[in-house]
Amino acid sequence: MTFSIHGLPVARGIAIGRAVLVASSRVDVAHYFIEPDQIKAEIERLRVARNAVIDELQRLQATMPRDAPPELAAMLDVHLMLLQDEALAYEIRRWIKERLYNAEWALVSQLEVLVRQFDEMEDPYLRERKADLEQVVERVLLHMKGAATPVAAPPPRPARQHELGLGDTQDVPLVLVAHDLSPADMLQFKKSVFAGFVTDVGGKTSHTAIVARSMDIPAVVGARSASHLVRQDDWVIIDGDAGVMIVDPSPIILAEYGFKQRQGELERGRLARLKNTPAVTLDGQRVELLANIEQPADTALALGVGAVGVGLFRSEFLFMGREGKLPDEEEQYAAYRAAVEGMMGLPVTIRTIDIGADKPLDDRRADTHLNPALGLRAIRWSLAEPAMFLTQLRAILRAAAHGRVHLLVPMLAHASEIRQTLEMIDKARAQLDQRGQVHGPVTLGAMIEVPAAALSLRLFLRHFDFLSVGTNDLIQYTLAIDRADESVAHLYDQLHPAVLRLLADTIAEGARQGKPVSVCGEMAGDPTMTRLLLGLGLRSFSMHPSQILAVKQEILRADTDKLTAWAQSVLDSDEPAALLAV
Ligand code: PEP
Ligand code: MG
Known about the structure:
The protein has 22 helices and 16 strands. The chain is α/β, with parallel strands linked by helices. The protein has 3 domains: about 5-25 and about 150-270, Glucose Oxidase, domain 1; about 35-145, PtsI, HPr-binding domain (Enzyme I, Chain A, domain 2, Orthogonal Bundle); about 285-580, TIM Barrel (Alpha-Beta Barrel), CATH 3.20.20.60. The strands form 2 sheets. Strands 1-8-7-3-4-5-6-2 form an 8-stranded mixed beta sheet. Helix 1 (about 40-60) packs antiparallel against helix 2 (about 70-85), helix 4 runs antiparallel to helix 5 (about 125-145) and helix 6 packs parallel to helix 7 (about 205-215). The chain is globular. It binds phosphoenolpyruvate (PEP) and magnesium ion.
């Protein structure tokens, strides 16, 4: 039966394919595809872990005191029975053999199937066995953790659709459906072949959504119970423009969306022709279109759409999901240098690490503070970890010897933070001199993403060569709306008069003092915002490569002479959204 689930649109376009469910589990589980020649080893890994848990439970059973509660003995019996159930083990192996899922994914996929069956049971005793099953799976997962192969895995090639058991056609697209995905997980899936994805939770500018947007595939977040309602292999349509997922579509609906999809592809083809067209408005204003990247390899995407530089390299992605083992100076230097060389002489803006809030260093160690977004995040974290910060600064300064580098500092708000940051940069340079190591010049920029910073522009412009407005956080902190929380997503308003005022003042103050101001938040890559930003005087936009051509098209059609007066009226309005709609 066809039904639809509504969420928040993240990345545009239509995807039609079979659902691949990334199961939710209390233990964080890596999901990746293995190669066919790894099947045996993967099954063996599972067997070893299962046997280890059986041994552990049998030891417990043997050493149980006589006066132990009888429920405990009964529970151990049930757990051992589940572990030794051959039919269950067979089904788990099938996920590995037929789908090429890694062992952990296979385990939680089967868990998900059984949990649904338990939930449908009438008998309360049997229903409660669900908890036993979950505990057993968790134990096995914990045993496998140490022995897990890295998450990075080769993507399934299209020809693998057969091996994945997804029907006769060679190219059935796969759509990822998950409760939640961390930004680090998302980055892994970036290397994969998913045609679209949906998550139950998340806001439009959460970092998971941002990475998804960089994958340039239709995506919906905040779809509430999608991962419960959709089943493995269901046919689904993702409408990334409307933020809707349609499950089990009828032939008429499929045909309609197939048509929409082809229209979208034609539009992309048209936009691709703009790659080498200079971004100049009708009245001759030159606009700089820069790329946001998460890893050095993204520079190829940036050049592919004609970006004239990188406006934001989110360096924290080098640090995430490494279970506490941070990249050393050499590894960082190699990554920054690769990005600089990848841009072939065009400038690269490297932002110092912005870890914390919805970008945890390690998914397994979630921030337990009540308000992580207001806590030890970004520059606050860097200043609290001076050795780590100096290592990063040295690596960036060394990479600057290979090309044009701008160094950007996130989340600054206080004069003392600015002073300390500048001192650290001087110190990093002095350390390199002392070692006799080559380094290059950098221009220094500050992100304006805390309202306090937007209200202290003179302080910032005194110390920095340029500013970059992080509208994602500026909106979050101005409106007190968690950008990653779908339950308040309707209040996350990029057109709130207070947000526009802070943005307009930053652009104007930069222009007055002759210092470049860029916007690198998601707003810069939203083509419905381009005219307004141009009208407010913005001439430098940084966004995901996938958005650059659509924004360029808006620029080519714009006349800033006319837009300036209109932008002032939007700024003066109590309800700017109404003026933008016309
Ligand atoms: C922003 O806040 O707008 C920004 C670009 O930084 P991030 O999204 O990484 O927090
Ligand atoms: Mg930010």
